[in-house]
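Reading is simple: the C-alpha cell line describes the chain's fold. The lines below illustrate.

. . .
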Amino acid sequence: MNFRQLQTFLEIIRLGSFAAAANNLNATQSTVSARIQELESELGVALFDRSQRKIAVTSKGRELVSYAERALQLHDEILHHITPRQMLSGIVRVGVAELVAMTWLPAFVATVHERYPHISLELDISLTAPLRARMLAGDLDVVLLPGEIADPALVVHPLGMVAFRWMAGAGMDLPDHVLSAQDLTRLRVLSLGENSVHYSTILSLLDRGSSAQRPDLCNSMTVIATLMIANTGISVLPPACYGDDIAAGRLRVLETICDPAPVPFVAAYKKRRLSGLHELIAATAAEVSTFATAEDTASG
C-alpha cells in the first residue's frame, strides 16, 4: 500500500469516476485502474462495485475513506514540517475574486514562486458564490474572496477590509446635494452578478430607498468602471483601486447618506482536504494582501 494508491482512491470517490480521477491526477485511466487493483489485492477486499454502469463504493470502501484521509493528512504534515520549503511541490488550485486579481495578486504569485519554486498555481477568477461552491466541492483548494465565513469545516485567514463608495462618471447628471437612498433609486445602478457580495451589498442599499429597481448586471468590476466612465450608471467601487480615474476626473466619489460598510476578505480552505500546501498558500495570501486591517478601516 502506498500514498499514491490512497490518493487515487479518494480522488475517484470525490470525482465519481476513474476517468475524472485520471484526468485530475494527470495519469492514464489504465494507471488509475492498476493502482486500485493493487490496493484491493493488498487489502483483500473490493473497494468499488463495478457491476453497475456507474461505479459505487462498497461498504469496505466507505470504511477505508477515513483511514485514507488520515494517512494522507499525516503524509502531508510530514512533508510540511520536515521537507525544506524550497523542495515542496504540487499543484494548488486557487479561486480568486476579481478585486484581489486587480490589486495584489501579482505580488502574491511572485512571492509563492520565490518561496516555493516547485509549487504550481492554477488561478480561477470568478464571483464569490461559484468560488465558494467549487472549494466546498473540492474543485478548488484555496479561495480568496469577500465576505465573512464562519464554517467549522473551513480554515480561514483574514485578508483585510476594503472600503467601497458610491461612484459615478464625471459627466453623469446628478442632483446637486448629498444623495439619499431615494435619490439613488432614481438612477441606473450597475452591479456584479447575483452570485456576488457586491450584488447583495447594492441591493441592501437600494432597499433603504424602497426601490424595486433591478441593477444592470456585469461579471467584471473593471467593465463596470468602464461603463461608469461612459456615464451609463452608478455603482459602488473601492476608491483605493480607482485613484487614477478619480484624480483624472473620469470617476467621482459621490456624497451619500448610505455608503456601504467596509467589506472583509478572507482566504479559506477545507480542513479535511490535504492542507499543508493549502495552509502555506493561504498564509502567504494573508501576508501579501494590501487590503486595510479592521483597525485601519475603523480609524479611517
